[in-house]
């Protein structure tokens, strides 16, 4: 216990770094992955703006990035990370790779959420003369809110886990602390403390996300 108390400043700094990495990557996922998911849905077969070519290109890119094991993606993006941030060390640098991985991840979840919206509701909106923007905002995104919140929760939880992997290549955060002290220095108590911290973080995010999705679900 004394060991953990003496490490408290480092632990707090690691938590801060993990939160920075997750916040940046999730922001990128929502800003870029959200529209990507909507485009994937709209351009798919029998939808409002069907475009097989565009849809195939986007699907290919999404599948390509998602097929990379994250640690390989992290290493392969080191040149891009250096170009964007000027360094490959630290939470901001690790956020580049995390963001690249988060955008298609969340985009696919958004597409799947929109597919759950009943076709009849969309056709009813079209029959009233609603334009595409209105259908996206007032029909698709409104009806899919519970599923979108669940998808966002899954994305946050997944990228808390990915941020721990980023620690393996100098990204910082709780994963980095666990590797440096728990693995290399055999300080088991620090390793256990890091695992407990990650568990608490994941449970907290999952509980809030599940509760919010449940409140938004009209079927409840």
Would you kindly provide a written description of the structure presented here, covering whatever features stand out?
Keywords: Cell membrane, Membrane, Transmembrane, Transmembrane helix, Transport. Belongs to the binding-protein-dependent transport system permease family. CysTW subfamily. It is found in: Cell membrane. InterPro entries: AA_ABC_Transporter_Permease, MetI-like, MetI-like_sf. It is a multi-pass membrane protein. The protein has eleven helices and no strands. The chain starts with a helix and ends with a helix. It is mainly alpha-helical.
Low-confidence stretches: none
Structural class of the secondary elements? mainly alpha
Radius of gyration: 20 Å
Order of helices and strands: HHHHHHHHHHH
**Total of helices:** 11
Topology at a glance:
Blueprint: H1 2-6, H2 8-42, H3 52-67, H4 70-76, H5 78-85, H6 91-115, H7 119-127, H8 132-143, H9 145-166, H10 173-183, H11 188-216
Helix pairs in contact: 2-6, 2-9, 2-10, 3-6, 5-6, 6-9, 9-10, 9-11, 10-11
Q: In a nutshell, what does this entry contain?
A:
The chain has 220 residues and is mostly helical. The chain has eleven helices and no strands.
Search tags:
single chain; 220 residues; mainly alpha; 11 helices; 0% strand; elongated
């Amino acid at each position: 216990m004394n060991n953990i108390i003496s490490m408290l400043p480092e632990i707090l700094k690691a938590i801060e770094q993990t939160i920075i990495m997750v916040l940046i990557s999730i922001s990128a996922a929502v800003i870029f992955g959200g529209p990507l998911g909507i485009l994937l849905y709209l351009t798919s077969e029998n939808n409002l703006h069907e475009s097989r070519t565009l849809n195939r290109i986007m699907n290919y890119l999404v599948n390509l990035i998602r097929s990379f094991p994250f640690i390989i993606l992290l290493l392969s993006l080191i040149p891009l990370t250096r170009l964007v941030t000027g360094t490959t060390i630290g939470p901001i640098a690790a956020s580049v790779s995390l963001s690249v991985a988060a955008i298609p991840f969340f985009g696919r979840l958004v597409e799947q959420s929109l597919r759950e919206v009943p076709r009849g509701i969309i056709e009813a909106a079209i029959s009233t003369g609603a334009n595409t923007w209105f259908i996206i905002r007032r029909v698709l995104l409104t009806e899919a809110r519970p599923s979108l919140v669940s998808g966002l929760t899954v994305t946050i939880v997944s990228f808390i886990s990915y941020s721990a992997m980023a620690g393996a290549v100098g990204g910082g955060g709780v994963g980095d602390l666990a590797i440096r002290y728990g693995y290399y220095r055999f300080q088991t108590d620090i390793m256990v403390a890091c695992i407990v911290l990650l568990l608490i973080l994941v449970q907290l995010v999952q509980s809030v996300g599940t509760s919010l999705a449940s409140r938004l679900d009209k079927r409840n």
